[in-house]
Design a protein that fits this description.
Elements: H1 2-13, H2 34-48, H3 54-57, H4 63-76
Helix pairs in contact: 1-2
Length: 77
């Protein structure tokens, strides 16, 4: 799952994928703004057929947070 999130983030932020590490902070370390995060989540929702509630967005600080959330959604389905 990390590899997928890494690819999506790198493409959306136009950065080298190697910069996206599991503990990278999406905004502080990778330079994403709120629009980038929204686009990331929309891409994930489309790719994985899930809906991420708005209240969950505040919990996504690191790449690990996104990966853990997606892993938990896969287990629930």
């Amino acid at each position: 799952m990390f590899d997928e999130v890494q690819k999506i983030l790198a493409k959306q932020l136009r950065i080298d994928p190697s910069r996206v590490q599991i503990d990278s902070r999406i905004q502080a370390d990778l330079g994403a703004d709120s629009l980038n995060i929204l686009q990331l989540l929309m891409k994930i929702e489309d790719d994985y057929g899930i809906v991420i509630p708005d209240e969950e967005l505040a919990d996504f600080e690191t790449v690990r947070d996104v990966v853990n959330y997606l892993d938990s959604q896969k287990k629930d389905s």
